[in-house]
UniProtKB/TrEMBL annotation:
<protein>
    <recommendedName>
        <fullName>Phosphoenolpyruvate synthase regulatory protein</fullName>
    </recommendedName>
</protein>
<dbReference type="GO" id="GO:0004674">
    <property type="term" value="F:protein serine/threonine kinase activity"/>
</dbReference>
<keyword id="KW-0418">Kinase</keyword>
<dbReference type="Pfam" id="PF03618">
    <property type="entry name" value="Kinase-PPPase"/>
</dbReference>
<dbReference type="InterPro" id="IPR005177">
    <property type="entry name" value="Kinase-pyrophosphorylase"/>
</dbReference>
<dbReference type="GO" id="GO:0005524">
    <property type="term" value="F:ATP binding"/>
</dbReference>
<keyword id="KW-0808">Transferase</keyword>
<keyword id="KW-0547">Nucleotide-binding</keyword>
<keyword id="KW-0723">Serine/threonine-protein kinase</keyword>
Length: 71
């Protein structure tokens, strides 16, 4: 998951000044995604201040520790 402020910055790079990039909209998107993942028991990773390598390591460690994913 990403911080709403950072998501807004990214959206602003793609569509400057749009409703899509507004902080309020980004907070809504994140809240909806969080609610969906909690409802479905889907784990997530906080990614705002992590490098892609750190994110990959976190995901791989989670997969290795979850026997059901590995079969």
């Amino acid at each position: 998951m990403i911080d709403a402020e950072r998501l807004s910055e990214i959206h602003n790079e793609h569509r400057p000044g749009s409703n899509y990039a507004k902080l309020e909209n980004c907070r809504y998107e994140i809240n909806e995604a969080t609610a969906m993942m909690k409802k479905q028991s889907i784990p997530w990773v906080l990614t705002t201040s992590k490098s892609i390598e750190e994110i990959a390591t976190t995901v791989l460690q989670a997969i290795k520790s979850d026997k059901t994913i590995l079969g």
